[in-house]
Amino acid sequence: MNKIKIHVFTIADYEEEELWLRRQHQQGLRFVKIVSPCFFVFEECTPEDVVYRLDYQNSSAGSDYKQMFADYGWEYTGSCAGWLYFRKPASQIRQENDGEIFSDGESKVDMIRHVLKTRMLPLLAIFFCMLLPNCVRAFSGSLGRLDAFLIGFFSAVIVLYLYLIIYCGRKLIKLRKKYKSE
User: Fold this and answer.
1) How far apart are CA 88 and CA 94, in angstroms?
2) Can you say whether residue 58 is alpha, beta or left, with left for phi > 0 and alpha for psi between -120 and 50 degrees?
3) How far, in Å, CA of 94 to CA of 91, rounded?
4) pLDDT by residue (tens digit) across 82-125?
5) What are the residues whose beta carbons fall under 8 Å from the beta carbon of 39, sequence distance 6 or more?
6) Alpha helices (runs of H) in 3-74, residue ranges in sequence order
7) The whole model's pTM is what?
8) How far is CA 30 from CA 38, 50, 99, 132, 146, in A?
9) Structural contact between residues 80 and 36, judged by C-beta atoms closer than 8 angstroms
């Protein structure tokens, strides 16, 4: 029987997501798929220590790409919004780097760059090209009788966007620094 759990992770929280999926598996819930944005589908299983890893490609994974991971013992479990999900039983991890899908820190830094370019830049573009100008129009009173509603709506959206941009940006930059030192 499938079980659905709701959990929100940002684009910068992928390491936390990996750990959360591992804990779910240890508690007898095997990850099946994610339905965007935050609905995780699990199936009951025998509790087992399974390592989960995410890779960001911003596209679907080709069969050669999946096969490369399979050759190293990683099972492809699906994708969502550019993130690819892999798992491997912890019992198959013999050396420290067997538990990683990236061979070095520079590969992780490249992934962070890709996330920044394909996720953060579009968020910033939407913010500066759509939200901010509409908010300015709402505050200037040029939208008519919906002004009060729109001011509240755009204010809330701008606060949320700013929070996400700052939170994700700072966290991704920290991760990039961490990976550069590996």
Assistant:
1) 12
2) left
3) 8
4) 899 999 999 888 776 667 888 777 888 888 888 888 888 887 78
5) 4, 5, 6
6) 14-26, 63-71
7) 0.83
8) 16, 9, 18, 42, 48
9) yes
